[in-house]
Design brief:
Elements (H helix, E strand, L loop, with lengths): L10 H11 L11 E7 L3 E9 L5 E9 L6 E7 L10 H4 L10 H7 L3 E5 L18 H9 L5 H17 L4 E11 L1 H12 L3 E7 L30 H5 L7 E7 L8 H12 L3 E6 L7 H15 L2
Length: 306
C-alpha cells in the first residue's frame, strides 16, 4: 500500500476495496515545473508538469484568480469522456471543445484556484498517432493481466494532483473541492472515498450504478472495469467511504441514461452522509447548462468557505 492509506487519503476506502482495485502506484517526488503562464483577465492560467510515477509525468492547467487576499479554495476539475480522446484539460479551461464544459475557467473567474489535468488516455496522455483512438481499453487490459486496475491508476493521479495543489502557497489546504461531468461525474463519486482532503464534490450526469450499466446503450467504461467488485458492491458502498465531513451534490438529468437510478442513489447516500448530500434533478439530458453549473458552483462555494 502506498501513502494513499496515509495522511493524504482514506485508509477506509483503500481497505474496503483493496482486493478489487489492486496495488497502488508507488508515490514519487512531484518535481513540478511551470511550462507557461498566460494572463486571462480575471485569472492567470499556468501550464505545469509534475511526476505521477517514476516513469510518467502529467501536464495540467492551473487557473489562479488575480488579487486574492490569501490562500483560496481549490477545485479539481475532471474533464468528460464523450469519446473525444483528443480533448481533456483544454476543454475544461475553455481552450477547445464545448463551452459548457469550461468549468475550470468559470470557477477561476469566480475566485477558485482550479486544476485540470489530462486523465490517462486523453489529450496529451493519448499515445495514438493523432490522439483520436480509444487507448483506454489497452491501458485497462494491460493492467488487469498484471493484477492492477486502470481505476487505481486514475485515483492515484487525482491524489497526486491534489498533492500538487497542497504544495502551492496560494491554495488553502483545508478547502479542496472536486467537480466533473459524465466521466468526471463518476470520478467525483470515487475520488472523495480515497482522498479525504476533498471536502466537497459535484457529480454531474455520471451517477449510473454498475447494476444499471449492463445494457447495450450504456455499458462499462474501461476505467471502471474492476474484477469482482460489482458482485456484492455498487456506488452506494463507494459513497459510504467519504470523509466524515465531505459533502456531495448529485446532479442529474431525468432524460440522461448516465443518470439512471439517480434518485435511488441519492436516497441511499442520505443514509450515510445525512444532510451533507444534496440532489439537483433537471428535466434534461446529458448536458451541463449554465443553470446547472450555477447550482454546482454555489454548492462548492458554500462547502469550501472559510
Amino acid at each position: 500500500m502506498s501513502r494513499h492509506a496515509g495522511t493524504r487519503s482514506s485508509s477506509r476506502g483503500a481497505a474496503a476495496f483493496g482486493e478489487f482495485l489492486g496495488p497502488w502506484p508507488e508515490s514519487v517526488p512531484l518535481a513540478p515545473e511551470r511550462l507557461e503562464q498566460v494572463d486571462c483577465g480575471r485569472y492567470v492560467r499556468e501550464k505545469v508538469s509534475y511526476a505521477v510515477t517514476a516513469e510518467h509525468r502529467v501536464s495540467a492547467y492551473i487557473c489562479v484568480p488575480k488579487g486574492a487576499p490569501g490562500p483560496v479554495p481549490a477545485v479539481f476539475c475532471h474533464h468528460q469522456h464523450a469519446a473525444r480522446f483528443d480533448l481533456g484539460k483544454s476543454e475544461v479551461v475553455g481552450l477547445a471543445g464545448d463551452p459548457d464544459q469550461a468549468y475550470a475557467h468559470e470557477l477561476a473567474a469566480a475566485g477558485f484556484i482550479t486544476i485540470a489535468p489530462d486523465a490517462i488516455g486523453f489529450e496529451e496522455r493519448n499515445w495514438s498517432p493523432d490522439r483520436s483512438a480509444n487507448v483506454s481499453w489497452f491501458e485497462s487490459a494491460t493492467r488487469l493481466v498484471q493484477g492492477q486496475t486502470l481505476l487505481t491508476a486514475c485515483l492515484h493521479d487525482i491524489s497526486v494532483g491534489i498533492d500538487y495543489l497542497m504544495s502551492r502557497a496560494d491554495v488553502d489546504p483545508q478547502r479542496v473541492g472536486f467537480i466533473g461531468h459524465s466521466y468526471g461525474g463518476r470520478m467525483a463519486l470515487w475520488a472523495p472515498a480515497f482522498d479525504h482532503r476533498i471536502i466537497a464534490a459535484v457529480s454531474h450526469c455520471g451517477c449510473i450504478p454498475f447494476r444499471d450499466s449492463y445494457t447495450h446503450d450504456t455499458g462499462l467504461q474501461a476505467e471502471f472495469v474492476i474484477p469482482g467488485f460489482a458482485a456484492a458492491n455498487d456506488l452506494e458502498d463507494v459513497i459510504a467511504q467519504f470523509g466524515e465531513s465531505a459533502a456531495l451534490l448529485i446532479s442529474a438529468g431525468t432524460a440522461d441514461k448516465w443518470s439512471r437510478s439517480a434518485v435511488e442513489l441519492f436516497t441511499s447516500a442520505r443514509e450515510t452522509l445525512g444532510d451533507r448530500v444534496e440532489f439537483a434533478h433537471y428535466d434534461a439530458g446529458h448536458v451541463f447548462t449554465p443553470e446547472m453549473r450555477a447550482r454546482a458552483y454555489a454548492f462548492l462555494r458554500a462547502h469550501t468557505k472559510s
